[in-house]
Amino acid sequence: MTVDTVAEQSSPTRFSAAIADLTAAFGNRVVTSRAVREQHGNTVTWIANQAPDAVIYPQSTEDVQQVVRICAKHKMPIIPFGTGSSLEGHVNAPHGGVSIDFRDMNKLLTVHAEDLDCVVQAGITRKELNEQLRDSGLFFPIDPGANASLGGMASTRASGTNAVRYGTMKDNVLTMKVVLANGEVIDTARRAKKTSAGYDLTRLMVGSEGTLGIITELTLKLSGIPEAISGGRCPFPSVEAACNATIMTIQSGIPVARIELLDAMQVRALNLGSQMGLPETTLLLMEFHGTEASVKEQSERFGEIAAEFGGGPFVWTAQAEERTKLWEARHNAAFSNFQLRPGAAMVATDVCVPISRLAECVTLTQADIEESRIIAPIVGHVGDGNFHLTMLVDLNDPDEVKRAEALSERLVKRALSMDGTATGEHGVGQGKMKYMEAEHGAAAVAAMRAIKQALDPLNILNPGKMLPAG
Predict the structure, then answer these.
(1) CA-closest candidate to residue 151, choices 88, 107, 198, 95
(2) pTM over cut 0.85
């Protein structure tokens, strides 16, 4: 069976029987109202909303096992749902099915402070986790911006603003409890910080977008809350100058924690949305973690590097209130963009290239945006070559939609031509399946299909995502 045939095997009658069995087992935790179902389809980009037939709210791994066994019996698709903040249609139900909402599985189960790790349920969000960890002196550093669930972040291999220092989800998940398509539960590894025993099932599941198994618990690496943090902003005459300053900073061994690139249009949006009063030019937003002496030294050294490339002055501070205001504005960048074109739809996309090609890729993309006559500010995790385009589009204008789609397609092809990837952190979902073969090659995609077939022979786990029809 290929990965797109579940629709042919399913029917409304079979789904009705599955929903009846689920309702008998879970009562009012099964919801079939149209409003709730539509809330569990894609709602945050231009991919059409495809609602599931039902939504269920499990409270334990055992509940998820029971849901999976009932769905397997009826060949009913299962779509895991965290907070619904993913951007490529991951939570859509193109073949119908049941959405498993992890809202009620949101507990911090155990903290092993001496080992710098913790065990959480999949539905807890990163902000909830860090609020509960605060008194321990530890925190979970991965910060994709949205207050996403940890299960969802693992499923899409999320990263974000801290990735240049702390890595991505693949670097910060030690082991997971995963329910397979037959209802069995596996632990992907042990809690040890490293192992060379067997296949790396943890990293197989991280980034699999719910297509190979359903994550119910995660053991996560933690970091100590830094003694001191400094950060600030630095203007540059061009994207190229900002990127060159970044490369020099990293090559110099300065342990930067966050380094974000904003083009002039994105800065203007922040000024409109958050009243920041920033200079409307290319900006780098920086943050350094360490001791009071070290963050002062790192900030001053970066200021010297920036000056070598025509940047500056670097305005930095160790005051938490000022830094918080700056990073809150950065995290609200997507919503600030609506100020550039009220009433437009927001269509976000991302690519990632080797850092040495980032300035070229962003510069060419800026020219492409202008030629396409699309409003599309750029923000990038410049420390690892990942940047985001937020297109503001009138979806009722067919010509504009066509131009925006073409711009997005050229962006991906440009990144691939530079030995980059179609997505650095948003994931594949439905939106970027068509690029998988161009990026990985036919043989690699065939190997992925073989893994999918082996672990999910009925193709009930988030079908219609990740792998194009074969």
Answers:
(1) 107
(2) yes
